Amino acid sequence: MTETNVPAELTYTPEHEWVRRVSPTTVRIGITDFAQEQLGDVVFVQLPEVGSEVEAGESFAEVESTKSVSDIFGPLNGTIAAVNDELESTPDLVNSEPYEAGWLVEIAVEESAELDAQLGDLLDADGYRQVIDG
């Protein structure tokens, strides 16, 4: 089995999403290396509209692979601030660069303290490794 890439600087959800803070009130979201390995070749990504509300634990997007369709769940509460339009023409970026060019959306919250609190509820790299190692 190959070693799954779990960058230490990110936070994670048990549903295999990663979260990277990109500003005091905004995070970038994607699926983890483990998740893209499990999915197989990604052929389509359905993303929400900019301005849509996201609720923690609720499905807000879908990633379709040759094996299945998987829901993407909100890691926190906020508003879609940006979507990765590149995925429309090159959905396989989710496979080849899950932590870089294969990001899905950016979510904004009202205040940095609110974001701090929500990020505190997520898993660090070691916690996420325990999820995938079972």
From TrEMBL:
Residues 26-108 form the Lipoyl-binding domain. It comes from the Bacteria. GO terms for biological process: glycine decarboxylation via glycine cleavage system; protein lipoylation. Transmembrane segments: none annotated. PROSITE patterns: BIOTINYL_LIPOYL, LIPOYL. Binds 1 lipoyl cofactor covalently. The keyword Oxidoreductase does not apply. One of its GO terms (cellular component) is glycine cleavage complex. The modification N6-lipoyllysine is found at residue 67. Keywords: Lipoyl. The keyword Hydrolase does not apply. InterPro entries: 2-oxoA_DH_lipoyl-BS, Biotin_lipoyl, GCV_H, GCV_H/Fam206, GCV_H_sub, Single_hybrid_motif. Its cofactor is (R)-lipoate. HAMAP family: GcvH. The glycine cleavage system is composed of four proteins: P, T, L and H. Belongs to the GcvH family. The glycine cleavage system catalyzes the degradation of glycine. The H protein shuttles the methylamine group of glycine from the P protein to the T protein. This is Glycine cleavage system H protein.
